[in-house]
Design brief:
mainly beta; about 325 residues; five-stranded antiparallel sheet
């Protein structure tokens, strides 16, 4: 694999000044996380800070290093049994309604954390197994601590506390996960960056423009914030014309991480068939249906190098 180094034998440290306070929930201080730019994908590369319209956009290194520190925490405790919560298209059943719920602009029930019921996974407390306490997103990472009847007891990463989860919603990760590959999607700046842990250093493998999901009810939804796992891949992901079941085209090199949200290349609308490498809309404003749109070659880079069940996706803002 081609490597392009942006520093000569020196570690590249970003935003240390505002990282002296340890992030809540991390036992590893983000200020101590070692990051080095060593790109293995070097097309359409963005600078740390770059112009956009009349202002600038940036890679939020402080927040990114918090996520890498959190991943180091996961790596340190990787022994044990891990799983991914799965309920795409309610394949395991739409979960029961939580005790206190609202309706959002999409006319879907949500819990008090604004997680929609549709395609979610119900989380129960030990003293209340009739009504779920809250929901978790499809694609959430869990560490399993035990079982009870038809429930699995687990910690949902990124959430406080321990929950009982109906076992049918859980996909077990085989073996001991390494969590050496990380993708960070920034909704505010409309960019995406990828990382690989090599020794004691996180190598920056790519820094690219993207577009995320738009908030346009009833059909377009924002890309959800949080921590997710790459769950499956499709070389050509077919999609429907809005509001129909008619195939409208395909998105190349698709990597699913949450519900119907994929990291994929520029959509190809029928009757066209050839892959489109780049679009001028990348890096501008949210415009997809939960998905994270990339240059085709960058989505293929992720498709080829970030394996299912082992690669983490953080969506930040």
């Amino acid at each position: 694999m081609k490597v392009k180094s942006f520093v000569a034998a020196a570690l590249w440290m970003c935003g240390v000044g505002s990282l002296n306070v340890q992030a809540e929930g991390n036992s590893i201080n983000p200020a101590t996380v070692k990051v080095e730019k060593e790109l293995t994908y070097d097309q359409h590369t963005l600078a740390d800070t770059y112009p956009y319209l009349k202002g600038t956009r940036e890679f939020q290194w402080n927040k990114i290093k918090e996520k890498l520190a959190f991943t180091d925490d996961l790596r340190a405790e990787s022994q044990g049994t891990w799983g991914v919560l799965q309920n795409k298209s309610n394949i395991h059943g739409e979960p029961p309604v939580v005790k206190e719920y609202n309706k959002d602009e999409y006319n879907v029930a949500t819990d008090s954390y604004d997680v929609e019921r549709t395609q979610a996974i119900p989380l129960y407390l030990a003293n209340e197994l009739k009504i779920p306490n809250r929901y978790a997103y499809d694609g959430s990472l869990i560490k399993i601590t035990g079982t009870q009847d038809n429930f699995t007891i687990a910690n949902v990463q990124g959430m406080e506390g321990e929950y009982l989860i109906p076992t049918k919603y859980i996909h077990l990760i085989a073996g001991t996960p390494q969590f050496q590959k990380v993708i960070v999607v920034d909704r505010e700046n409309q960019n995406i960056s990828t990382y690989e842990k090599v020794g004691d250093t996180w190598k920056v493998r790519s820094m690219n423009p993207c577009t995320t999901g738009a908030h346009h009810p009833p059909l377009q939804k924002p890309t959800p914030l949080g921590l997710f796992v790459i769950q499956m891949k499709e070389e050509k992901m077919a999609y429907y014309v809005d509001g129909t079941t008619e195939i409208g085209g395909y998105a190349p090199w698709a990597n699913r991480f949450c519900e119907g949200a994929y990291i994929h290349g520029v959509p190809v609308n029928l009757p066209h068939k050839d892959i489109i490498e780049f679009s001028s809309t990348l890096g501008t404003i949210p415009r997809s249906h939960m998905c994270v749109r990339n240059a085709a070659s960058h989505s293929k880079f992720i498709y080829d190098n970030f394996p299912v069940d082992q690669s983490l996706v953080y969506v930040i803002e």
